[in-house]
C-alpha cells in the first residue's frame, strides 16, 4: 500500500514538473517587466492542487513538481539570486492553495483566492531575496512582489484556472488513482438542483 501511494506521488510530481516546464518554456517568449516581473503559468500547478486530495503528501508532491519544473527551466537560462528562495515560495504557496480550495474545486471564489494567495506568497518570498542578498532597494522588492502577484497569481493563475477547472474536474483524477475531490458534495448539489427544477 505504501509503495502504491509513493508511486502515485511520484507520478503527480513528475507530471506537474514536465507540464509546468514546457509551459514555462513557451511563456518565456513574453518579455520580463523590470525588475524580475514575469509571466509564469501558475494555473498548471494550481489545477493539480485542486485535483489531488487535500492532504499533505499529494499537495507536497505538486509543490515539489512545480519547483522542479522551474529548476529545469533555470538550467536552460541560468540561475539568479532569487531562485533558491523562490523555490521555498513554490512549496508554501501551492500547498496553501490546496487547503484553501478544500473540497470545493469548482468554487470560483475559492479558486480565485487560492490562486492569488499562491502568487502572493511566492512573489513575496522570492522578492525578499532582493533585500537579503542583493543591492536592490526595498521599493524594488515591493514592486516585484506586487507585479508577480498580478501576473502569476491573477493573469496566469486565477483567470485561466477558473476557466479550465470545469473541464478537468472528474476527468483527470482517475489517472492518478484518486476520487474527485468533494465528489459527494457536488453530487448532492446536483441532486438538490434537480429536485428544485422538478418541483
Describe the structure in brief:
By secondary structure, this protein is an all-alpha fold.
- Please tally the β strands and state the result: 0
How much is the average pLDDT?
A: 86
User: Major sheet, described briefly?
Assistant: none
Q: How many helices?
A: 8
| Unreliable residue stretches | none
The gyration radius over C-alpha positions equals 18 Å
The rounded distance between the terminal residues' Cα atoms is 47 Å
Strand proportion = under 5%
Give helix % range: over 70%
Shape: globular
Structural class: mainly alpha
Topology pattern, helix = H, strand = E: HHHHHHHH
Structure description:
The longest helix is centred in the last third of the chain and has 31 residues, at about 140-170. The chain has about 200 residues and is mainly alpha-helical. The model has no long low-confidence stretch (mean pLDDT about 85). Helices cover about 75% and strands about 0% of the residues. It contains eight helices and no strands. α2 (about 45-50) crosses α6 and α4 (about 85-100) runs antiparallel to α5 (about 110-135). It starts with a helix and ends with a helix.
Secondary structure elements and pairings:
Layout: H1 2-27, H2 43-51, H3 56-77, H4 83-101, H5 108-133, H6 138-168, H7 173-176, H8 183-198
Helix pairs in contact: 1-3, 2-4, 2-6, 3-4, 4-5, 5-6
Amino acid at each position: 500500500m505504501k509503495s502504491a501511494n509513493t508511486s502515485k506521488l511520484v507520478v503527480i510530481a513528475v507530471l506537474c514538473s514536465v507540464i509546468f516546464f514546457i509551459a514555462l518554456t513557451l511563456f518565456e517568449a513574453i518579455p520580463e517587466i523590470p525588475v524580475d516581473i514575469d509571466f509564469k503559468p501558475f494555473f498548471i500547478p494550481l489545477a493539480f492542487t485542486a485535483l489531488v486530495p487535500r492532504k499533505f503528501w499529494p499537495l507536497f508532491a505538486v509543490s515539489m513538481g512545480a519547483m522542479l519544473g522551474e529548476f529545469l527551466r533555470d538550467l536552460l537560462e541560468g540561475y539568479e539570486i532569487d531562485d533558491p528562495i523562490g523555490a521555498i515560495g513554490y512549496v508554501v504557496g501551492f500547498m496553501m492553495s490546496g487547503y484553501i480550495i478544500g473540497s470545493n474545486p469548482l468554487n470560483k471564489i475559492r479558486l480565485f483566492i487560492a490562486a492569488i494567495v499562491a502568487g502572493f506568497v511566492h512573489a513575496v518570498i522570492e522578492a525578499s531575496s532582493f533585500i537579503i542578498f542583493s543591492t536592490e532597494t526595498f521599493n524594488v522588492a515591493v514592486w516585484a512582489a506586487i507585479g508577480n502577484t498580478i501576473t502569476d497569481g491573477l493573469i496566469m493563475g486565477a483567470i485561466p484556472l477558473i476557466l479550465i477547472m470545469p473541464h478537468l474536474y472528474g476527468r483527470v483524477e482517475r489517472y492518478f488513482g484518486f476520487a474527485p475531490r468533494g465528489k459527494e458534495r457536488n453530487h448532492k448539489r446536483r441532486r438538490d438542483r434537480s429536485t428544485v427544477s422538478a418541483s
